[in-house]
Design goal:
- By secondary structure, this protein is mainly alpha-helical.
- It has one domain.
- About 85% of the residues lie in helices and about 0% in strands.
- The protein has 4 helices and no strands.
- The longest helix has about 35 residues, at about 5-35.
- It is rod-shaped and about 65 Å long.
- The mean pLDDT is about 85.
């Protein structure tokens, strides 16, 4: 494999890995924001959990895929990192609105 192709895969895998962890930070932030904004004695805790927990499930899946991608990055499997990160981003974007993560874990 030539070095230009390897270098481009390496750069693409690093960019996608940063994107996965950026999305992870956003999901954790949205979970915390939902928890703090709904902190009221008038709103039952079950309702708060129902609204905020899908963000936490999504963050958990992103963390799993991110750690898997880091492990693959240390093994220098850059194409695998690209595939794993792309799958994580797609699942995050399309799975969360349809409560895919909460259905899997329930």
């Amino acid at each position: 494999m030539n070095t230009d192709k390897l270098k481009s895969w390496k750069v693409a895998s690093k960019v996608l890995l940063v994107a996965v962890f950026g999305l992870l930070a956003l999901r954790v932030a949205s979970y915390l924001i939902a928890r703090y904004q709904l902190d009221s004695p008038l709103i039952p805790k079950e309702t708060v959990n129902l609204i905020s927990n899908p963000h936490l499930y999504s963050a958990g899946f992103l963390a799993f895929f991110g750690l898997l991608a880091i492990w693959m990055m240390t093994a220098r499997k850059y194409l695998g990192v690209i595939i794993v990160c792309a799958a994580a981003i797609l699942l995050n974007q399309f799975g969360h609105p349809y409560a895919l993560f909460s259905n899997i874990l329930s």
